[in-house]
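Input (Acetate kinase):
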Amino acid sequence: MTIPNGNILVINSGSSSIKYRLIALPQEQVLADGLLERIGEQESRIIHRADDSGRLNEIKQSVIAADHHQAFKAVFEILGENCSVDAIGHRVVHGGDRFSGPALVDDDTIASMRALCRIAPLHNPVNLLGIESCLAHFPGVPQVAVFDTAFHQTMPPHAYRYAIPETWYSDYGIRRFGFHGTSHHYVARRAAEFIGKPFDRSHLITLHLGNGASATAIANGRSVDTSMGFTPLEGLVMGTRSGDLDPAIPLFVEQTENTDTDAIDRALNRESGLKGLCGTNDLRTVLEQTNAGDERARLALDLYCYRIKKYIGAYYAVLGEVDALVFTGGVGENAAEVRRLACEGLSRLGIAIDEAANSDVTGAIAEIGLAESRTRILVIKTDEELQIAREAMAVLDKDHA
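Output:
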């Protein structure tokens, strides 16, 4: 099974949206991409861009998408009956410790993904819906699952284990998995290429900062630690997630307010983070309110950046040397003030920002560190869809060999 000049359709099926991109490999040309959002609402919308002589022309239209089945029907219709798809790559959030790399979709892969729904109830079921929809619409077309957790499966036990009763690990599989692995992997390789160092000899700290946020320590091209844990709740402060906190706090609140675990889960995942601190999960709004003198917004920004700085320092200690610090994700790529505050005071670690370069970032990759600094600081535009397409192609070529 090989598709040396194939078109890879990349599917990212979320709880209320579907992202897709059609990529021609090996030239890595985007033929089409789009987003269907507001699944389950009264009026859903699709934004579709199709290649027209090297340019992506955009179409916006309302669609009926009461559920994911109708949503995928709308996506397939706008792609068109004559759309040439040679293989499909799916983003899957949780691969547990079963998958350390991408996997060809078969009955065994689907069964394993289904079993993981108990620890990823918000993500894996809709990821599976995407796979099932594509299997039905593209019969005989090979499909590959690419897992957010896979890149972090190289972590050593002392990094992925928790200091909890052994039976919690042996019976329930409770351990650190980490997420955003596809993004961390992509930008880490781009960073190594940019600084001219072999990936398998590169020491990097990558920061994926968006509504969800995570940090990863990479030694010799392998993830050795990451901030998210058993779930995406642990680690950095995020848009609506708390990040690290004393595990006794949920127990205290549950007992004090006589509430239930669902309410605690909702509070920590949907009502905390920046939103809990200042009422909004949009970092752009936080920055605007901070500049207007809002004290709650100022605290939220300071806490957000302080947590990033703590992880930079911790991962510097883990790695011993750092070739480059990489910012990516919607916030990491666009928020100069966040980058500045996160690196402030780290010059003794060889991390120092060039203020002019930091305020004028353009293109897919930019360098924002002072020239004389020991550790290079990069801003890299992530491309998870391209990484998924590459990994899908690699699996199919290997399967053919």
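The chain has two domains: 7-147, 196-384.
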